[in-house]
Design goal:
mainly alpha; about 0% strand
């Protein structure tokens, strides 16, 4: 069955699914708050025990109650770490259940059936959109009142430190689902270029979850980022997913080597994958197919400057200036923007 034959009401489905985001986020927040309360209860209990011990130290030191009090304190600490390990071991399963519950509700609305491309695409899209709503949410669990605004950076860092792994895991589950659904569409329509492009973009979105945030142009140096985001494990995952995306790009290029749209999509994807040399190559191919495309010339000139290829960048600047392109003057501002 093709997409056109599915008879699927996209607008109605998107409206119904968007209503599921709020209750799902509430369930996720309750899960997060339960972890917070667990830590606070044990912290409060340990604090009370220490306070009582210090308050009655002189009295307790002359009796066997001192040993009993210390034993209770160490039992509390031991119990905390044991329960904490259990909670941490159970968290991935809880996040998986939360994700599956959301997706099952989506399937009920659509009356999901295997083998219908439109259904797979719809489920992939809502998984991706829900993951997008979680962007930087790890910084927002502790929002100070207006009179404590100076504490906002510290609370943001603490919030991220506590909960970024949970947010990351939930996004990973959703984006992986998006990839899996696009793979099912490819199995239904293996020669459809748009389907392969969508799968490539799904891989790009998943790879961005593991990419080094310092390599993005909107990276905020003042915002704290967990050191694990720079770890070798993350980079290995990024490269593995990027290879899958590149393989889809090769398929697109093999099917339509002279289609400018294909090369533009490849350029966008290479940009997201932080592969500037390949991005430049694709824009150069687009210019061979559309020599008068000024917007592509501008993007290529900007990339040349970013990569230290100033001679080529200046050549494009002169070309755009002679054609009275309105953004030509803004291009020269990128001269010298190369960073090793």
């Amino acid at each position: 069955m093709t997409i056109a034959e599915a008879g699927f009401d996209k607008q109605h489905y998107q409206t119904q699914v968007s209503r599921l985001w709020t209750p799902t986020l509430r369930s996720f927040s309750r899960l997060i708050r339960a972890s917070l309360f667990f830590n606070l209860i044990f912290l409060l209990l340990a604090t009370v025990e220490i306070a009582l011990f210090l308050s009655f130290f002189a009295l307790l030191s002359q009796s066997t109650v001192l040993a009993f009090t210390l034993a209770i304190f160490f039992l509390t600490i031991f119990s905390y770490f044991v329960v904490r390990l259990y909670v941490q071991a159970k968290r991935p399963e809880q996040l998986l259940d939360l994700c599956e519950e959301y997706l099952e509700r989506c399937k009920e609305i659509i009356r999901y059936q295997e083998g219908i491309p439109e259904h797979h695409i719809a489920l992939a899209n809502v998984a991706h959109k829900f993951a997008a709503t979680l962007h930087e949410r790890e910084y927002l669990f502790f929002t100070p009142p207006f009179f404590l605004k100076p504490l906002a950076p510290t609370l943001e860092k603490f919030s991220c430190f506590c909960y970024w792994k949970d947010i990351h895991r939930l996004k990973e589950l959703l984006l992986t689902t998006s990839v899996e659904e696009h793979l099912k569409v490819v199995q239904c329509e293996p020669t459809n270029l748009e389907v392969h492009a969508a799968l490539a973009n799904a891989y790009v979105m998943l790879s961005s979850l593991y990419a080094d945030p310092r390599k993005y142009h909107d990276y905020d140096e003042e915002r704290w980022v967990p050191p694990e985001r720079y770890a070798d494990e993350m980079q290995a995952k990024f490269r593995a997913i990027a290879k899958r995306a590149i393989e889809e790009f090769k398929i697109l290029n093999d099917y339509a080597p002279d289609d400018p749209w294909v090369h533009v999509q490849l350029a966008y994807s290479y940009h997201d994958l932080q592969m500037p040399e390949e991005e430049i190559r694709e824009y150069e191919t687009v210019l061979k197919l559309r020599p008068q495309d000024k917007d592509t010339l501008f993007k290529l000139g900007m990339l040349y400057f970013h990569q230290g290829m100033n001679a080529k960048g200046l050549s494009i600047y002169e070309m755009l200036k002679h054609t009275n392109y309105k953004k030509a003057e803004s291009l020269i501002k990128f001269y010298g923007s190369y960073e090793d």
